[in-house]
Every structure is written in C-alpha cells, then in structure tokens.
Amino acid sequence: MKKSELVFIPSPGLSHLIPTVETAKLLLLRDSRLAITVLLLPPIFKDPNAEIYSISTSISLTPDVKSPTSSQKSKIPASLLGHQHHTSTRAKLSSILFPPAASFLHNSRWDIILILTLAAVVLDIFCTEFISVAAEFDLPAYLFFTSGAICLGLCQHLVSLRFDHNEDVTRYKNAEVDLPVPYFSLPVPAKVLPAVMVDEAFLPEIYLSHFKRFSEMKGVLINTFYDMEPYAVESLLSDDKTPEIYPVGPVLKVESKCFDEDDDVKKWLDDQPENSVVFLCFGTLGIFDEKQVREIAKGLENCGSRFLWSLKKRENSELEREESEYFEGFLERTKGSGRVMGWAPQAAVLAHPAVGGFVSHCGWNSILEGVWFGVPMATFPMHAEQQLNAFYLVKELGMAEVITLDYQMDVTGEKPPESVGWEVIAGAIRRLMASEGGSGMKRKVEEMGKKAREALVEGGTSYNALTLFIEDVMKNRD
Predict the structure, then answer these.
(1) pLDDT digit string (tens) for 299-357?
(2) At what angle do helices 290-303 and 422-432 cross, to 10 degrees?
(3) Which of 16, 85, 210, 383 is catalytic?
(4) Is 168 an annotated catalytic residue?
(5) Residue 240 has pLDDT above 90, yes or no
(6) What is the DSSP letter of 62?
C-alpha cells in the first residue's frame, strides 16, 4: 500500500506543538492514504511547566505519526530555529526519501507493507528557513499557522510596510496612532501590535523575515474557521500575493487532561451554581510580578463572584511561600468563594457548567477553547500577538470585556509594565459575570461556538478546506 507522507516541523512550544499534533491526527482520520512524521525540535528555554510539556509531546500518537525528539535544550531565539537545525532536518528528510534497503514500514494489524512517498513539508512560521531544505529535495512547503488570520494578515501588512515601502516599523512602538490594516474592519491601535514586530529589543527585522517568506509557500493551513474571522480570511483569499489559504480550525485538544475522579477542585466546582464561577488562567508563560498578583487578588476579593485562579509559580519559588508573601490573608478570607491552584486542565475547567466567565491572556488556543465551550472572556494579554487578539475579541467581535488591551510583560528588563489596578479588574469581572452576559456577550460566544462545531462537520467550511488541502497534497506525488 502506497502512502503519501507529510513531515510537520512545529516550533517547540505548547501553543504551537499541540495544535500541530492535533492537526496531524485529524488528517490521518480524514484520509487513510496519508502518513505523518512530526519532527520535534529541542525546547527553546526551560518551561516552568516542563512536566506538562513532556505529557503533551507524547499525546496519543497514532501508529502513522512518528515523533523523533532531541534530548538537548536549545538556547537560541525562536526566530533562529531553522538555522540551528538546518543540517539535522536535511538528514531526516533524506532518510525518509531514501530509506535503507528493505526498511519499509510493516503494519502487522493489516499484514501489509506500507511504502511511504514523501509528499510535502509543513512548517511552523518560525521554521521557514526549512523551505530551502524542502527545495533541495524538490518538495513543496506548506505553512501551518497556529494563530488566527488577523495575526497572519497584520504581519503581512507590516512586511509590506518594511520591505516594499522601506518604512521603519519600530516607530509604531507605543505610538498613539491607529493604523488602517486591510485585514481588519476597524483601525488597529499601534499599542496592540506584537512587540516582536515593532520593538527593536526583539530584533523585528529577523521576525519579519519569517513572514516575508510567506509567499514562497504552496499553501497555508490556519487554525481558524471562516465565521470567526470572515473579514481577514476574505482579505487573504483576495490577495494575489497570498498562497492558497486553508482555514481548517478550530483544531483543539478539548479532551486534554481532565480532572481525576477524586480531584478536590472538580468537587468544589460541582458544588457551585451554574455559570457562577469566573476562571482565571494566563497560559504556560503567564507569570506576574508580586504587585500585579496582589492587585488581581484584591480584585477577586471585591468582585462579588466565585472564582478559580490558576496561578503559576515563579521559577525557584515555592507556591506556599508566594501565598504568604502575596496574599496577606486573601486565601483565608475567600475560602468559601474561591480557589487558587497551580496548573489547571483548562479545557476541562471551561467545559464545566459552573464556569461562566474566563479571564484570559488571549492566546489563540485559549480563545478558541473559550469559544468552543461558549464561555465569555475578559482580556488580560501579556505577550506575543495576545494584545492584537484581545482587541479583535473586544472591538470587532464583541465577545469579551476589557481588563486591559495593551499590557506587555517585561521580558527585556527595560521598563516593567504598570500594574492593572484591582478596581479595573473587579469592574470587568462584574460586567463579565452579569446575568445578561454583558450586552448579550454570552449569547454571541455561544453562537460562535455553535458555528465552530458546524465548520468541522462534513460540508462545513473547515471540513471543506481540509479536503482541498488533502487533494492538493495528493497532486504532489503524481
């Protein structure tokens, strides 16, 4: 039996890795002619939730998904991943294309020999340097973009400003201006632009160079669905310089680690009224400084809602000591109305009927999960493209309350962000948890969640887009 093999190369971070693996599994379910290898590059830095990373890199891979890994840790920026692993990736592709004699894949369940034909390479946006490796073997390269169409469109717009019009885009750093961006129906405030694209401290020229290679791709899979971003998707589709676009999302791992039967947090949630709990979770890297943690705690104490707060530990710090330093009796005073925990099974929490609101860092995967489970959000972005996502949620979709739109983590040490005050936090949570869901907000999110499910079933927009992608891949082996 002859199979067409795809090689996926994701960035080594949870927000990139998990949707990549889930997409690979989805493709295998859709078409038995496919086989997939996921090349796992070494982590860029030590993850404060390393044990979660370990779990995620081994998620229930089917026999046709192979995931060779490296035990070494990479200490380079994400933007240089391709350069660092150029040689090893070339060697891996060569071994797939030209296997040793008689080294075919034997499937004992069916008692047949599977002959693999490498059909394409599917790259993460920070692995675009591997386009040249694919070209050496005369293989087409596709992009799997793990964020939304709005982010992809904005980055293409900044690439055009920088390389086509020779504009210094760093002038937009913290600028008090609104930009007309073709992929948005509203002007975009400069303060919500991704810092890595406009802040000289992040070497934006390097990051933009990845997006500059966008036009070299044969096609682009985007983890979104048409009804979530119709304006951006239509703009990308109508752009003559844009490769073929395949909005195939939402690709989620909604069955990710659920509660254990004896989990006391689940038992606590089971005892709460429906839609009464606000859930706070800020992603793998969502670690605040002491002052901001105190403000969040005071906001929760004064908002009048039950809460469940996923609070990440600072490195080299014990949660018990942090509780003593930060909270000053907060845990004892809110014992009946709230819970504070470390890592949380986010999808399982959002799926629980007691949860009626979600205070989020606005990472794209978290937004899609919130939509999937019909939970309205409040925005507290921290880094990457999260400020842009927050702006889109609030201003264009009306599916979130504003806590902040332009908070930026202090990763350079240049200037710590100003803390968001507890009054602002408490007020936003009150609006979020209001019975009407904030001007029909809950209804809007639930309707979008319904559209997300419709997009994935046969005949849906994402289902059809994935079909078109598979058909294009199959042409590559002819």
Answers:
(1) 999 999 999 999 986 654 544 455 555 577 898 889 889 999 988 899 999 999 999 99
(2) 40
(3) 16
(4) no
(5) no
(6) -
CATH topology for 2-153+191-253+455-475 is Rossmann fold (3.40.50)
d(CA 121, CA 142): 6
Say whether 264-452 and 2-153+191-253+455-475 share the same fold.
yes
DSSP string, 398-467: --EEES-SS-----SSS-PPPPPPHHHHHHHHHHHTSTTHHHHHHHHHHHHHHHHHHHHSTTSHHHHHHH
Digit-coded pLDDT (tens) for 105-134: 444 444 444 456 889 999 999 888 889 888
The whole-number average pLDDT for the span 30-38 is 91
For residue 227, count other CB atoms closer than 10 A to its CB: 18
Give the whole-angstrom CA distance, residue 221 versus residue 140. Answer: 14
Q: Report the relative pairing of strands 65-66 and 34-38 from DSSP bridges.
A: parallel
Residue entry with tokens 């690979």: 24
Distance, CA of 60 to CA of 91 (rounded, Å): 26
DSSP letters spanning 101-134: TT-PEEETTTTEEEEEEEEEEEE-GGGGGGHHHH
| pLDDT reported for residue 61 | 43
Kindly state the tokens that stand for 470.
Answer: 């598979």
Verify whether residue 210 is a known catalytic residue. Answer: no
pLDDT tens column, 454-467: 999 999 999 999 99
pLDDT value for 113? 45
Active-site entry in 64, 85, 124, 210: 124
pTM listed for this prediction: 0.88
Residues 6+ apart with CB under 8 A from 456: 225, 250, 462, 463
| Helix (H) or strand (E) run with residue 28 in it | helix 14-30
CATH number of 264-452: 3.40.50.2000
Domain boundaries of the chain, sorted by first residue: 2-153+191-253+455-475, 264-452
**Distance (Å, rounded) from C-alpha 222 to C-alpha 368?**
13
